[in-house]
Amino acid sequence: MVSRLNVIALGAALFAGSHCFAEPVFVTNEMSGDLTVLDGVKHTLIATIPLGKRPRGIRVSPDGKLLYVALSGSPIAGPGVDESTLPPPDKAADGIGVVDIAARKVVRTLKGVSDPEQLALSPDGGRLYVASEDGGAAVVFDTGSGKILASLPVGAEPEGVAVSPNGHVAYVTSESEGTVSVIDARSNKVLKQFKVGQRPRSVVFAPDGARAYVTGENDASVSIVDARKHEVIQKITLEGEGIRPMGVGISPNGQMLYVATGRAGKLVALDTKTFKTRWSVPVGQRPWGVAVSPNGARVYTANGPSNDVAVVDTRTHTVIEKIAVGNRPWGVTSSSQNSIPLSGEFR
Length: 347
Description:
Strand order of the largest sheet: 3-2-1-28
Shape: globular
Largest sheet: 4 strands, antiparallel
Strand content: over 45%
CATH class: Mainly Beta
Number of helices: 1
CATH architecture: 7 Propeller
Mean pLDDT: 90
Number of domains: 1
């Protein structure tokens, strides 16, 4: 138990000086171009860090020292928008911002990716997998050198990215084609593509790596994937008016799946044994990103139009706090998201 507590403590003590706090939570704000840092225990604002244009996907390095943030100079274009009416993209703004958490600033930008959206790190932090939305590719970076190791076709409008717990494969979704591409981490080649729901937004692996879960926005679906065979074994439909599954998170013990439902404004909790809805709770306007605390006691949702983050207590199934952040929060992550879970985890 001591070693597990030390793992959590390591992720908690991230800021130098007077701002040492437990369970930091990081939020990207797409329109204000900055990062909000929250204390996940006190639910207070710690810092606001300038990032660049359209920060969206975000990941913490395994050692808890760095954040990787997708930055894009492409103009925002919602469903049905005529892109010919939009201003030209600022390609110079595209890249992956690397934030030194202790220094509270962007210290480096990885270049060579066009309109990045979501991203994921290998378990050792050595490789970064990025969805290049307008390039139709998954771009693989060596985080040490910053060099691109591969750029792989994965279908139009790639978005969701996740790496298996053992680091052997990465999954990348294609919104337009309704597929997941399986990337072999050793060869940097696409092993397989398989169909999921319509307009797949996000993907998460179970902690043991046996399953993966993919949200489908346009058919209100969650696809359950055999992550060894890389094939869908079941697809469920979430019931309710306006349900648009977006971000997805999983409890550290793998027993609960948390889905942000976009326009429906709810967080839905699914039992991963029965795939029945255990509970749901209104969290705010168009929740997108989802993060789970290291002991599973809280879930955070980034609520775009309401410019806040909801803190959901998974014991009482209630929103216990709403925290004002920047303009159009998009992504949210906990610093200790990849830590070993504490015993006595809440469901």
